[in-house]
Amino acid sequence: MGQVIVVTSGKGGVGKTTTTANLGTGLASAGNRVCLVDADIGLRNLDLLLGLENRIVYDLVDVANGHCKYKKALIKSKQYDHLFLLPAAQTKDKTAVRPDQMRDLTNELKQDFDFVLIDCPAGIEQGFQNAIAGADKGIIVTTPEMSALRDADRIVGLLEAAEKDRPMLIINRYRPGMVKKGDMLAIDDMLEILAIDLLGVIPEDEQIVVTTNRGEPAVLDRHSKAGEAYRNVTRRLMGEQVPIMNLETDEGFVSRLKRVFGFGGAR
Amino acid sequence: MNQDVVIRGTKDGLLILLSDELDFFALLERLAAKLTASGRFFRGAEVDVSIGTRQLGVIEHRALEELVQQEHGLVLRSVRQGESMAVVLERTARPPGSEERARGRAQERAVPVAVPDARAARSGAPADREDAPLVQVRTLRSGQAVRHRGDVVIIGDVNPGAEVVATGHIIVFGILRGVAHAGAEGDENAIVAALRVQPTQLRIGRRVAMPPENDAAPAALVPEVARILDGQIVIESRDRKFQA
User: Fold this and answer.
1) Arithmetic mean of pLDDT, B97-119
2) Which has the closest alpha carbon to B196: B236, B144, B148, B141?
3) Is the torsion defined by CA of B46, B52, B55, B59 positive or negative?
4) Which residue of A has its CA nearest to B82?
5) A195 touches chain B (CB under 8 A)
6) Cα–Cα distances in Å, from B228 out to B173, B176, B242?
7) What strands, in cross-sheet order, belong to the sheet with B145-148?
8) Is the CB of A56 inside 8 Å of chain B's CB atoms?
9) DSSP state of B77
10) End-to-end CA distance of chain A
11) 3-state DSSP call for residue A67?
12) B53 and A154: CB-CB below 8 Å?
């Protein structure tokens, strides 16, 4: 039986869908049977990130309301035979599905897959309640900003109240240069408030924009730093101990030279 | 069996549990029926009401108070939110003795009990300290609130976006980063104490204060106490002696 993991955040635009697409693809590339569920009914995006938008016939609302079996609605990914997407409906909204229906659906899916990842919509209303209903575990995605952090803390509280296990944290769009200058929240600052386990840190990376538009998740790109970080998170989800990678990428030649000669402070 | 409304006696008094399912007003009707069926048995008893994981609006809250206090003569001590009925039932079913440990793990929080206007007009005296202090062993997260008539002790942090409101003192055995309002009914002798007082806003009695802009927080935790001195809220670190 597989695990149902919800990828949530509270705040919008921090990278839930990107994370779901990349982790799902990463887990599939490691040989797992993976099903991604887009729970953002009315504002679906996960299909775009996987390049599958032209193949949608049936969707989550059809399955939840019993119009068809989930197998009919699943879309196989372009890259892997064992990675599937259950898309959201675009012409409905979050009230089209109830938490108990989501719970029944994910209970069915976990019989057939090693990992079921649910892409949660932003907010804390019914869309959120639907997405967390059947989840065994939660991953909270945040960016190093006060607003995202505040919302993430709210989500931790709501997951606690729903009696879910303690969620794990992914810090996205991290910029070590800004952190060093004191312009951006550091990892420890965020962990002090959230007090949950850190699953991974994903650096800011232009390649994300490119790969999103191409419909090919960055986790497959050998040259992408963010892709590498997502590959590490995948390994951690599978139980491996992987140290947080060296995030200092925006170091120019001159600053590296300075460091060799003893200037430039701690790395 | 109908488990929408459960009335249970615990070592701390009467506990009414309301289920998470069902429309709130339908639930109130079930509660009304149960209370009526018990005649005058519960009159005068102090009761805590656990509303499960739902959030109550002002109108719903008032309806609950009216039903319990005005119509059936109980004394509504607190309204608790945050844990489902099943969890609370399990916790309160334990034999006395293990109750102390169990209370430590409680995840519920108390929700505001509105002060009836008559009572506020009559008193004007400092808060009634005879109410048992509320002790919560947990970190309050953004969006969570604890409100209590009496003193409150939080063993854990109070994160930004969280709120503690008490008619008495507020003690946070952790870092206070949210909002704390001590002496909420006008007691200017109430204090707010924490291992670090770093709130978004501090209120004591009727005074409101915003803490000064600090740069990086000090590394070590030095206990601090906020209180009213000469009409202003001041924060003193525990390094210096202060008169209680």
Assistant:
1) 42
2) B236
3) negative
4) A161
5) yes
6) 20, 18, 12
7) B145-148, B163-166, B179-182, B201-204, B207-209
8) no
9) E
10) 43
11) coil
12) no
Tokens of B23: 């429309």
| Residue of chain A nearest B52, judged by CA positions | A161
Residues in A 175-194 with any Cβ partner in B closer than 8 A: 193
Dist. CA A57–CA A38, nearest whole Å: 14
* Chain B residues closer than 8 Å to A164 by CB: none
User: pLDDT class for A84, splitting at 50, 70, 90?
Assistant: very high
Contact A73, A41 (CB under 8 A): no
**A 96-155 residues with CB below 8 A of B?**
150-151, 153-154
Contact criterion met (CB below 8 Å) for B173 and B195: yes
Separation of alpha carbons A232 and A199, rounded Å: 9
Pick the closest to residue B78 from B38, B50, B98, B37 (CA basis): B50
Strands B46-50 and B75-81: what pairing?
parallel
Residues of B with CB under 8 A from a CB of A: 53, 82-84, 87, 107, 139-144, 157, 159-161, 177
Disruptive mutation site among A124, A153, A158, A196 for chain B (greatest number of B CBs within 10 Å): A153
What does DSSP say about strands B232-237 and B224-229: parallel, antiparallel, or unpaired? antiparallel
The radius of gyration computed from the CA coordinates of chain B, to the nearest angstrom, equals 19
Helix, strand, coil content of chain B in percent (nearest 5):
20, 30, 50
| H/E run at residue A116 | strand A115-119
pTM of the entire structure?
Answer: 0.71
Alpha-carbon distance A150 to A145, whole Å?
A: 9
State whether B84 and A163 contact (CB < 8 Å).
Answer: yes
**DSSP-derived 3-state class of residue B189:** coil
Rounded Cα–Cα distance for residues A134 and A70 (Å) = 16
* B177–A158 C-beta distance less than 8 A: no
With beta carbons under 8 A apart, name residues in chain A contacting B157.
Answer: 193, 195
| First-to-last C-alpha distance (Å) of chain B | 54
User: Is A160 at the interface with chain B, CB within 8 A?
Assistant: yes
CA distance A134 to chain B (A): 17
B169 neighbors B192 (Cβ within 8 angstroms): yes
What digits encode the pLDDT tens for the residues B41-51?
A: 777 788 888 88
ipTM, 2 decimals? 0.78
- Which of chain A's residues have a Cβ under 8 Å away from the Cβ of B176? none
**B177 vs A contacts (CB less than 8 Å):** 193
Chain A hits for B87, CB-CB cut-off 8 Å, are 163
**H/E stretch holding B87:** helix B85-92
Interval A230-257: pLDDT, tens: 999 999 999 999 998 887 754 455 555 6
Where does residue B152 rank: exposed (0-12), middle (13-18), buried (19+ CB within 10 A)? buried
